[in-house]
Design brief:
Belongs to the alkB family. GO terms for molecular function: broad specificity oxidative DNA demethylase activity; ferrous iron binding; oxidative RNA demethylase activity. Helix content is about 25%, strand content about 25%. The chain is α+β, with helices and mostly antiparallel strands and about 350 residues long. The protein has two domains: about 15-110 and about 180-340, Sandwich (Jelly Rolls); about 120-175, no CATH class. Strands 3-4-5-17-14-19-12-9 form an eight-stranded antiparallel β-sheet. The chain has a four-stranded antiparallel β-sheet with strand order 13-18-15-16, covered by helices on one side. A three-stranded antiparallel β-sheet has the order 7-6-8. A hairpin with a 4-residue loop joins strand 6 and strand 7 (about 150). Helix 3 crosses helix 10 and helix 10 runs antiparallel to helix 11. Bound molecules: 2-oxoglutaric acid and fe (ii) ion. 2-oxoglutaric acid binds near residues 232, 240, 266 and 282.
Amino acid sequence: MYEAANVSDDADRTAFRRAEKKYKLYYEQDSKFSRKKKLPKPIDLSELLDFDLILKDFNKTSVLPDGIRVVEVDSSPVFCIENRPGFYFIPGALSLEEQCKWIKESLTNFPQPPNRTNHNAIYGPIADLFDSAKQNKVLVQEDLTDNRWKFYEEEGIAKAKQGSCKSVSASVLLRKLRWSTLGLQFDWSKRNYDVALPHNDIPDALCQLAKKHAAIAMPAGEEFRPEGAIVNYFGLGDTLGGHLDDMEADWSKPIVSMSLGCKAIFLLGGKSKEDPPHAMYLRSGDVVLMAGDARECYHGVPRIFTDEENAEIGVLESELSRESGNFFAEYIKTSRININIRQVF
Ligand SMILES: O=C(O)CCC(=O)C(=O)O
Ligand SMILES: [Fe+2]
């Protein structure tokens, strides 16, 4: 499914790869300041599709840019791209309250065992990562032979480390959280769903939300069945390389993909990496659907924005800090979370 963003299999040779390089984060020396200071290199954003703007213009004038179509769902516009059938963009689909709820769930409950995360391979299952980070705890290796790790308060570390065990702080682990899986667990080494792995159902409220937004992309008369989900966590400089999600049985069913936190650039290519991709902004609250032909289209995230001007999460940040203290707000200020929900069978 995924390939690392920095693989050089196709170097600069494909249109998709060239777009990834065009939008990814590079640093350059800042001539005005000290020699060491580096700043993000400015990029040309003029070709990006901005569905927030398209929506505003459409509401005012009923005019759409070339190549963009609209379908109305419960009197809210859903946008399509003419040459990418099966792709749907629902700007601002999630309310502020829903965004806050799913950010909090993504950080607290979703990475809890039996759900797996990228940390499983090294540390085994880790419970209560978010709370441990909040309490400045440290994960210490207890037993070398069976690779057991346990959280300690900072003052307990000296004792725990007497045997020169390895340790890592919970806040570093939270920063390095890259994915967690909900429902049926995806096995990254076998690149498939492993139904034998213990798992919980996807929470009902998330299922209902996914079903509601999936409806427009579903074959007539059928209801979306959320069976597995991948939660992606992005910090500054993190990318998701061009890929297809092809491990689900029935590609007529959509992938329902929700964006939370900092604004990102999404590339929607074609069925070949030679097809020039459409580049578009994904903002907190946007929902994207990929069904049918669009399931065969390469896509990826070459960039997230964490600077105040581009991240566009001021309202979200203040709402999060108002209702639940600074920890969630601090995390999301420099992060993006994507929840993508799939019908597996
Ligand atoms: O982060 C995104 O918006 C896309 C995620 C995605 O394509 C995936 O997880 O398969
Ligand atoms: Fe994907």
